[in-house]
Write a structure and sequence with these properties.
alpha+beta; Arc Repressor Mutant, subunit A; Alpha-Beta Plaits; 2 domains; 4-stranded antiparallel beta sheet; 36% helix
């Protein structure tokens, strides 16, 4: 389990993973070595799995984002999963229960690129695509308490 200070540190790192130990110490009221030790323990327990940066895909020319529901044809599940993994424009993918086996997030530069990438799956799966207009809730932590 995590205590209130651990949760404060986690939230602070979620807001800015580049926060210094000194800044985290000031925020938590602990010393820098104490913060360092807490972070090490959170990492060892698997609570903190990594530190990352957030980029805007549009800065790299990816103007469209799509959510794709993917239903493999009979006997094609593993091939579809292999293809999804091999296409770098698929930036996230979950294997789910229900009619569709995969729900994936895809970033593309154009509608033509979207069609080209989805055509690679055509002989192996049915797809249903929605273009993302806005993301009112970005990835966030569930309540910790």
């Amino acid at each position: 389990m995590t205590d209130d200070i651990d949760q404060l540190l986690i939230k602070a790192l979620m807001e800015d993973s580049r926060r210094s130990l000194k800044a985290l110490a000031q925020l938590s009221g602990l010393s820098s070595p104490s913060v360092s030790e807490r972070l090490r323990r959170l990492e060892e327990r698997g609570v903190l799995k990594g530190y990352t940066v957030e980029i805007d895909p549009r800065c790299f020319g990816y103007q469209l984002q799509a959510i794709v529901r993917i239903r493999p044809l009979p006997g094609q599940l593993h091939e579809v999963e292999r293809q999804i993994i091999a296409i770098p424009e698929f930036t996230e993918c979950d294997k789910v229960t229900g009619d569709d086996c995969f729900i994936a997030r895809l970033h593309v530069r154009s509608m033509e690129q979207l069609d080209t990438l989805l055509d690679k799956l055509n002989g192996h799966a049915e797809t249903n695509t929605a273009i993302v207009k806005k993301t009112p809730v970005k990835r966030r932590l569930p309540p910790m308490a």
